[in-house]
Amino acid sequence: MPENELVEGLGLDEYKYDFETEHKPVFRAEPGLNERVVRQISEHKGEPEWMLNFRLKALEIYESKPMPDWGGDLSTLQETLDEIYFYVRPQDKMEHSWDDVPDNIKDTFEKLGIPEAEQKILAGVGAQYESEMVYHSLRKEWEDKGVIFDSIEDGLKNHPELFKEYFGTVVPSADNKFSAMNSAVWSGGSFVYIPKDVHLDTPLQAYFRVNQERMGQFERTLIIVDEGANAHYIEGCTAPVYSTDSFHSGVIEIIVKKNARFRYTTIQNWSNNMYNLVTQRAIVHEGAHMEWLDGNLGSKLTMKYPSCFLVGEGAHGDILSIAYAGDGQHQDTGGKVVHAAPHTTSSIVSKSISKGTGRSSYRGLAKVYDGATGAKSNVECDALLINETSRTDTFPYIEVGEKTANIGHEATVSKVGDEQLFYLMSRGMSEEEAMALIVRGFIEPIAKELPLEYAVELNRLIELEMEGSVG
Amino acid sequence: MTTATAMPESAQIEGVTDAINRDAVVALAGSEPQWLQERRVQAWEAYEATPMPTTRLEEWRYTDLSEKLKLDSFRLSEGPGPDVGDGRYPARVQQAMDEDWDASGHLVEIDGSVVHTDLTEELGRQGVILMSLREAVTKHPDLLEKYLATEAIPASEGKFQALNAALWTDGIFLYVPADVKLELPVRVTRWISEAGRAHFSRTLIVAERHSQVSYVDEILSPDLDTQSLAHDAVEVISQDGAQVQYVALQRMGKGAFYMSAQRTLAQRDCTLDTLNVSMGGSVTRVDLNARLLGTGSNSDMLGLYFGDSDQHFDHNTSQDHVSAHANSDLLYKGALDDESRSVFRGIIRVSPGAQQTDAYQTNRNLLLSDTAHADSLPNLEIEADDVKCSHGATVGQLDKESLFYLMSRGLSREQAERLVVMGFLGEVLSRLPLSGVSEKVTRVIEKKLAHI
Fold it and tell me: What's the helix, strand, coil split of chain A in %, to 5?
């Protein structure tokens, strides 16, 4: 999409993914969550018995856990959950060529620029529409090297042993209320296996789209990066704006084996009526390297704390988190690092911007177990406040039981400085340009890590959002 | 209703039943004015209506009272025996006091009853009041009715705040009239000797406009073979332009559970600084809430702890910026040896409209042993945009390069370690240069370091 067209189409604070497509699903479960719905999901997917039992047990756990009383405002969530559709099957099979995807669904992804990006810069693409993956494809060269990039359902069908060995081991159903919910009703998501010593030089991308009103999306992703392998996975999320709230709760499980490297990038730009409660966790083995790059720009409320469990000697975890909370939004995000082996190192860098009545909260954990000698962790949080009504919080937890560990946390909160603005304006910039420049400079350390098209889009978003924010 | 009677001659606490119950509250209230009787009974009701805090609450996440506090097993303090009185003190109390002669006044509280007060004549003439809280109930009822457990720590604040308001046996009242400046600190020495008892004491400090005062509280006890609780509620109220320093020095023995609820209220242009030094006791829990109520107010909040054996420290602080143009700066540092554990939880809250706030918060921990443990939770809640706030927390070990340097200069490893720890903790003391305090705390730390 040419830039001028994009900008024209956008007013201040306008959400550009607000379009809906006419599409009649082939199946839709009744609204709300109950055992019947869980059984229907399992039946539609033709699952083995053990998976149905896994789901039913998770439903029990979900029902036994209280709604969290921390984080964001979940007081009206139950009402939303009673009304949303937990399972909507858009079509009966998944395609491996865009030509076979029904036109109205394809149209959606074309508007989002997915097929174009696939041709240019990606090793593989998955696209989820409502509850199911509608498209999945991987370049042949990688397929030939044994890389698996498939929908989670096909992972279960085609690689049952690998699947069963790891599924639910990184994020157990009982981890939290929403991981239990996801375990009961999961549908869609990716199954990824990178064989030993395979280095993917371009990213894999999954795109999640919620189209229907009052929809709940529960993707489940399992990624196994074998010894010495190297890969990058990107997920993007959007939905149209409806007057009722929608709900998204994913579970992402990642295993990074010895000396492997993996990066997981999320750019979440859900519409402002979406609850986004996600559990993302990686187990990082000896000498391996895990990076979370977590961008939270959309949603009504996001509660998401990507984590690294460093279980092998010399494992390293990086979490880069950027949050933007505009009017009415609450981004409750951060990261967790758990050091359970010697000489493990980690770093969390979080940058947040709160504008209008937006609220961004950093919530994080740095934990060092006794015996994790020489563990090092550094946490840095910076928050920028744009308006008088903006709000920011920082809630770090530091737990250290190891003498030789070195753990540090620092946070600052500031507003855009008058001196900075004055300097830039004295050089001929308008106040808005100056503000946008300062904000871009603030998020630069994270934006520069993003794939190019996301970085460009983030910068554009900041520019647009800053219009009229001064004074 | 009974009417107020004169104070009993003996320091012995009258009519107290054994256990923590309503009868004890009624007995304590027996000879008191009606407003206080009512306050005690209401506080008891608040206590009964409030559930015991559990680790499910954020503020109690790392201190499990069901395991650490045997509240049901306590009997209430009986007060000091007949052999303790004016001029006759336990040796350690005497020792502590001997170092404190440089003072505007003294007060000694033994097992929950004040047994001695003195104040220079000049200050007495200027209207300064330093006396036992029980005595103040009859002598200064207006001031007490206005300030005691009202603005600063009402019973509604929490389970233990309510229990204290219901069952306090005595405490300290310090009143400094407008424009009066005390050059030397007021020094309070408190002693707990009874094992298996709960002691509830209150401190009320009122500094009127443009007055100036430093207050040093030292609490001591021997090692106790069964657990005792020393619970303090400390209310510091400083009016416009006053300058107040409050220092709490806790050097209790093993078996002591020291719990201190402190709140400071700083009005316009006040300087209200605090220092909490936690050295002794088996379990220490300090809840300090600094409220910056007036523009231009300023609070420095300092803390120091040194744990060994299985000591458990839990410092829970909050900096409430209610008004614009106020500053607060918190620095808590601690060293942890053996199997000791420290919890620091601090929060800076900036209310909407509290613009031009400068608020800082730092917690640094040194782990000296493989089995020591430190948890740090420095929090921020910011609802104004034109602020400067930052916080930092670290947990680490002794700096190897510093040790190496000192050892290369001929110091033994032990000497070098002690010096580095002393330097680390000394930063806190240097921020509050109050005569006598630094020296005393330094000696206590040195004694602890001698065991490393």
Answer: 30, 35, 35
